[in-house]
Amino acid sequence: MREQWGSSAGFIVATIGAAVGLGNIWRFAYVTGENGGGAFLLLYLGCVALIGLPLMMAELALGRRAGADAVTAFDTCGRASIWRHAGWIGVIAAALILSYYAVIAGWALRYVFGAATGGLWQAGPAGYAAYFEGFIGHGVEPILWQATMLAAAGLVVSAGIKGGIERLNRWLMPVLAVIVVMLAAFAMTLPGGMRGVAFVLSPDWSVLARPAVYLNALGQAFFSLGVGMAVFITYASYLDRRTSIPRAAVAVAAGDTAFAIVAGLAIFPAVFAFGGDPAAGPRLAFVTLPQVFAHMPAGTIIGLVFFLLLAAAALTSMMSLLEVPVSVLVERTGLPRAGAVVIVTVAVFLAGLPSALSYGVLQHWTLGGLPLLDWVDQATSNITLPLGGLAVAIFVGWRIAPRAALADADLAQGRTGWIWLWLLRIVVPVTILLILLRSLAWW
Ligand code: TRP
Q1: Are the C-beta atoms of residues 94 and 229 closer than 8 Å to each other?
Q2: Closest CA to 88 of 337, 331, 325
């Protein structure tokens, strides 16, 4: 018999663990900072509710209906149908995302050790940029940390759905929730911290005149929820019929969004209180924040806890990305789980080497003017994520008989189901096509 989650609550916690990751802390903070704060947040909330949530429900319904890996889930229309291959988009993209995600997760782990041993704090007030560049530009160091994070994720995933993924998430996610709330409570009491709160919560409407802001909001919603990459198809394939899919999806989307906002309420008050630049880009977490921590009361401890949070949140997302190709391999070749984990982990590690070295020995190898890591990030977020989402929306919206789709999503009764179905049929694909066209123009 195929393995199952131990309980409905265990499934929901694990799925929140997949959704909450670098996207909620590192990426949410810098993208919100670059896009002007509060008004961006409202757009992002709209994208979560109208696009992200319907897609997540579709992935969950599809996965549970199939009770099989993400490729098999699409393979129900006969041998001649192109849908037989649609699942591979998500599987390959999950592996690609994992390849560079592991590198950044490795940076976070490196900073945990830097903060714990004190090495980080010796960088001196102006030295944090140099510290960061010295590390990411080093020939081997980033690879060691990338490998460590991948090995940790592989270890948990090889212990299985219930005994590995569910068990770790069950205790780790509540701890992370407490930590992020405490960090926010502390940051908001800093003198001047309220300006950071205002930055996140009070909208500056002028940013809405910039078209890129809308795309960034949608991209951030996709990435942070983790839709489009077959993660929810895979997780729900181990789910029983007693769990309500709309309720699970709302819990996961709300949990993910709340986590991002609270993380923002930890980061921006600290940044504003100490005169940092909220629009510092991807370096916000690794250069601006250490500078801030160095000035803060108890900052060395807060800094350590912050990077622990970042690394741990990344780990639970890595597990979900890893499980997608692992389940395909296990179910389509009959390999034992541990063997499949080793194969996928090594392949993802090798695929991530160019990213790991992209600020060091490979820094002159750029694609379209971008360092390799940034290129893989852009290519997956702008192209494969929307493509994967589009495939799910069209398959569940148009290919599965509507009554069956509604029943799969536990929405056979009442009118809500039809709202969901029409969002999935029209609003989701049209919006995704718009972003795709726009990112193709960008290429
Ligand atoms: N959602 C995670 C984050 O916020 C990352 C992630 C996990 C993801 N699974 C995904 C992103 C699938 C895209 C697709 O960091």
Answers
A1: yes
A2: 325
Is any atom of ligand 1 closer than 6 Å to the C-beta of 105? no
Tens-digit pLDDT profile for residues 138-174: 889 999 999 999 999 999 999 999 999 999 999 999 9
- Say which amino acid occupies 137: G
**CA max distance for the chain:** 65
Pocket of ligand 1 contains residue 52 by CB under 6 Å: no
- Ligand 1 centroid to residue 384 C-alpha, Å: 13
Q: The tokens 């309720």 sit on which residue?
A: 247
Question: Is 7 in a helix, a strand, or coil?
Answer: coil
What is the Å distance from ligand 1's center to 21 Cα? 7
Q: Is 19 in the pocket of ligand 1 (CB under 6 A)?
A: yes
Mutate to test the pocket of ligand 1, among 51, 97, 233, 316 (most ligand atoms within 8 A of CB): 97
**Amino acid code (one letter) for 253:** A
Residue of 92, 321, 322 with the most ligand 1 atoms within 8 Å of its CB, for mutation: 321
Q: What is the C-alpha to C-alpha distance for residues 396 and 236, in angstroms, rounded to an integer? A: 15
With a 6 Å cutoff on the Cβ, whether 316 touches ligand 1 is no
| Residue 367, phi then psi, degrees to nearest 5 | -120, 125
Q: What are phi and psi of 366, to 5 degrees?
A: -115, 160
Please return the burial class of 227, using the count of CB atoms within 10 Å of its CB with bins 0-12, 13-18 and 19+. buried
Task: Please give the average per-residue pLDDT across 375-389, as a whole number.
Answer: 83
Q: What is the pLDDT of residues 195-214, one digit of tens each?
A: 999 988 888 888 888 877 88
Cα–Cα nearest to 59, from 87, 24, 22: 87
Neighbours of 246 (CB within 10 A): 17
- The closest residue, in CA terms, to atom 9 on ligand 1 is 226
DSSP 400: S
CA torsion angle for 90, 96, 99, 100 (degrees, to 10)? -110
Question: 388 CA to middle of ligand 1, Å?
Answer: 13
**Which residues on adjacent β-strands are paired with residue 16?**
none
Close Cβ partners of 288 (under 8 Å, ≥ 6 residues apart): 128, 271, 276, 277, 280
Across all residues in the chain, what is the average pLDDT? 90
